[in-house]
Amino acid sequence: MIELKTPTEIKKMHIAGQFVAQVLSELQGLAEVGVNLLDLEHHVRRRIDERGAESCYWDYAPSFGRGPFRNVVCLSVNDAVLHGLPHDCRLRDGDVLSMDLAVGIDGWVADSAVTVIVGTAAEDDERLVRATRLALEAAIEAAQPGNRLGDVSAAIGAVAGAHGYPVNLEFGGHGLGRTMHEDPHVSNDGRPGRGLVLRPGLTIALEPWFAATTDRIVFDEDGWTIRSADGSRTAHSEHTIAITEDGPLVLTRRDDEPVTA
Q1: What does the alpha-carbon distance between residue 62 and residue 57 come to, in Å, rounded to a whole number?
Q2: Superfamily classification of domain 7-250
């Protein structure tokens, strides 16, 4: 079931979105060579407690995974791209780190992700990260009222194809609002002109993620961490948006986002 949100409800989601954006910006500043992933996890825990917010990840137990998730942020390094469990690991020069955060405030949820390169950036990694950001912006631009969900998916797939990156269709974007995962599913590739008509009040998380040389994934033994099947580097960008009469409204936009045009 898809629930269209009222303007007042979208404003409440925007409050959660701005908190998520702020915390991700803080994490980008903290993600330096030598920093332990657990330090980043503990920073997010403190910020959630200070705000009186609620983690969408803690105790999350979907059909995949092994037991309830017992962290408040997903931290995925290099060939890991989704659902990475924070653990005792220090960041090294050149690591590609994807950080994914979903938080609820006063019963309304927002979800966003950003990938950063720690220390010295390899050109191929910069290109990969930039491609996910470009795909995200293309998806946002396509999310106009009256367009269809396939237009959004096709916009992501077109950027991937232009850069030569294969696309995995098992995990993608999703609806959200009162909970982290709601209908509809938003594939990272698709056919324009097909699928759900985008109506004002629809709130969705758009999250293009690419691996450099494969569309296949594997799971770690922890049952959560998703990696590229061939060990190639990965990147992930995500925003929560609302469809409005005036076009897409990004609820998780960060003040420090780079220009991707």
Answers
A1: 10
A2: Creatinase/methionine aminopeptidase superfamily (3.90.230.10)
Mean pLDDT of 122-134: 98
The answer on whether 100 is annotated among ligand-binding residues is yes
Can you read off the two tokens belonging to residue 65?
């995974």
Query: For residue 115, what pLDDT is reported?
Result: 98
How many Cβ atoms from other residues are within 10 Å of residue 10's Cβ? 22
Cα angle 188, 163, 27 (rounded to 5 degrees) comes to 65
DSSP string, 156-204: HHHHHHHHT-----SS-EEE-SSSSSEEEEE-SS--TT-SPBP-TT-EE
Structure-token pair, residue 206? 């758009």
Q: What is the pTM of this model?
A: 0.96
Predicted confidence (pLDDT) at residue 260 exceeds the cutoff of 70: no
CB of 122 within 8 A of CB of 78? no
pLDDT at residue number 261: 45
Percent of the chain with pLDDT over 90: 92
Q: Is 238 annotated as a binding residue?
A: yes
Ligand-binding site membership of 174 (annotated) = yes
